[in-house]
Structures are given as C-alpha cells and as structure tokens.
Specification:
With about 270 residues, this protein is mainly alpha-helical. The chain is built from twelve helices and no strands. The relative contact order is 0.13.
Length: about 270
C-alpha cells in the first residue's frame, strides 16, 4: 500500500471515529423511545410506538411545540430585520469604531447563557413580562443576530459592488437594487443565517427555563422539566423527533453552503 493510500485510509478512519464519538451517544435515545417499558431503560425489554402516540394524547407536548415554533419563527424574522442591515453597514461602511461595534453585537455569543438568563429574568420581571413569549423572543433575537450578522457578512465579502453601481446608473433606487440585485446574490448566506437563528431559538433551554412558565413553556423546557419530574420514555420520543428535525435543517445548510461556493466560483471565473 502506497503512502498516499495509507494516509487516505487513516483520514477516513479518523473521520469515522470522530463521527461515532459525536453521533452514537445521541442515537441511544432511538431504542429508548421505542421501549414498551414505563421508564427510560437501555437495553429495552420490548418494542412499542406507544410513547410517540402519547405525545399527541398529552396536550402539553403539542402546546409546547407550538410555543417553540412561534418563538423560533418570530426570532428568525427579527434576526433577519436587524441582522441584514447591520451586516451591510459593517461590511460596506467605513466609520470609526466599526470593530468595537461588531464586538458589542457579537457579545451574546461569548457570554455564558446562564448569565444571559439571570439578567433577562431580572430585567423582564420588573416589566411583568416573565412567562410571556415576547420576553423570550427578544432574548433569543439578541442571541441569534450575531450569527445572522456573521453569515451575511461572509456572503457580502465576495459580493461585487460594481453591480450596485451599475443598477444605480440604470435608475434603480436603493430598495429595488437591494431586492433585485443584492438579496438574490447573498440569499444562501441569509437563508443559512435564518435556519441557524431558528435552531438557536428552537433548541434553547436555559433562557426559556428562566422566562417560560405554565402554558408558555417551550419544547426544550418541557423536556428539561420532564427529566427532573418524571423519567418518561415520551421524553426520548421527543428527543428523537428533535434530532431528526435538526438534522434536516443542517442538511439544508449544507446544500446552501454548496450553492454559495458555486456562486462564488462562478463570480470569480
């Protein structure tokens, strides 16, 4: 076996080991969700789909799912409205303090989430908004905007700004230039940022633990409470559905990144 072939197989073995280390602990919830037992156990004594059916019988789970979807979509829309203009200003603007402003916007990425949760609880408690979806949406938006900013700035870094000047010379206004020229070319970065923003909000549990109560509980908050209060296999069924949903979204991100690379290669050709 040649040295190149040996290095190639060594790389495959390393990648397979790394993937197994990451994925196998997650996949153990699949057989646990299909157990016929009344408690979480592995190996399972028998097989059943009863816990997936239980998710639709117990109205708390659909209600928590609905709360998570509303909060996630609202967070995504706000992150788009705030992140895209901010990214354009930071990528194309030339003003003093740009790096400091970028660091301030990105601060939620490096701040421990539990600190964010405590601060948000203290702030919104004074406003009487604890247990209200609005408080969770606003905090999740602050956490999602830096990600949106990063993906859009990356797309703008390869954008040919002569296209903007060409559109202006043809009489197109700022809004028309943005929607007809800029947005279509940076769409992969925008959609990628939107998907990640939705995932951040949909999977977030720490802030939701501080701010969601009663009927306003989100799905991750329900899972966290279920682990503490009861060891029901229904929790494993929810976990499996969440993993599958996240995997689909990550697959979409991979497709968009491939499309973005193809657009960059086409633009540079």
């Amino acid at each position: 076996m040649s040295a190149d072939r040996f290095r190639k197989w060594l790389m495959y073995a390393y990648a397979a080991t790394l993937l197994a280390f990451i994925i196998l602990p997650l996949l153990i919830v699949v057989p646990m969700s299909l157990t016929s037992s009344n408690s979480l156990a592995f190996p399972t004594p028998g097989w059943s789909l009863r816990w997936y059916a239980e998710l639709w019988v117990d109205e708390r789970w659909p209600n928590a799912l609905w709360n998570s979807v509303i909060i996630g979509l609202s967070t995504t829309v706000l992150a788009l409205l705030l992140g895209i203009p901010a990214a354009i200003g930071l990528a194309w603007g030339d003003f003093a303090g740009k790096r400091i402003l970028y660091a301030i916007i990105a601060a939620p990425l490096v701040t421990p989430v539990v600190i964010v949760g405590v601060a948000a609880f203290s702030f919104f408690a004074t406003l009487g908004l604890v247990g209200n979806k609005l408080s969770i949406i606003l905090v999740h938006t602050a956490m999602a905007v830096p990600v949106m900013l990063t993906t859009v700035v990356a797309s703008l870094s390869t954008f040919d700004r002569t296209l903007v000047r060409a559109a202006a010379s043809l009489g197109a206004g700022a809004m028309r230039t943005f929607f007809k020229v800029v947005l279509p070319l940076i769409a992969p970065g925008v959609v990628t940022g939107a998907i990640i923003a939705f995932i951040i909000s949909f999977d977030e549990v720490v802030v939701a633990s501080f701010l969601s109560t009663g009927a306003e509980r989100t799905l991750p908050r329900m899972i966290f409470s279920g682990v503490r209060e009861s060891i029901s296999p229904a929790i494993a069924a929810v976990a499996v559905l969440l993993i599958a949903f996240s995997a689909i979204l990550l697959g979409l991100i991979a497709i968009l990144q491939s499309r973005s690379q193809a657009l960059r290669a086409k633009a540079s050709a």
